[in-house]
Amino acid sequence: MVSVVERELRDRLLGHLPVDPVILRARLHAIAASDPEAAPVAIAEALSEELAEAWGGELGSEQSSQRVIGSALAAGARETWLWVMGERTWRHTAEGLAGRAARRVEPAASSG
Q: Around Cβ 56, how many Cβ atoms within 10 Å?
């Protein structure tokens, strides 16, 4: 069950949702087409940078936000792959990542 605090944090993260990164998706799609084994790492690294810039302030310290985003991306690897392949919308993917991130934040960091 999602707590009220997690839901509020998820909603704040979605309020800072980056615009659909279509150019990034196209670049990642090209990597996936040419080197599928390297693509998951490239996807995680690229989205980690994108989301840290947008969500870092909501997730606590830089170290904490990197951990939370990295963990959310690892748990959502299938969803991010499907987004890169054009099977999911950015909104759907970002909502899933925001929920995963909100569940991974230490309670003190999410009280802002």
A: 17
Cβ count within 10 A of residue 72: 26
Token pair, residue 92, equals 């759907």
Domains of the chain, by residue range, sit at: 4-111
DSSP for 70-112?
Answer: HHHHHHTHHHHHHHHTTSS-HHHHHHHHHHHHHHHS-GGGGG-
Distance CA 38, CA 19 (A): 25
Residue 109: pLDDT above 60?
Answer: no
pTM of the model: 0.87
Are the C-beta atoms of 106 and 98 separated by less than 8 Å?
no
For residue 59, report the phi and psi dihedrals to the nearest 5 degrees.
-110, 10
Average confidence (pLDDT) over 91-96: 95
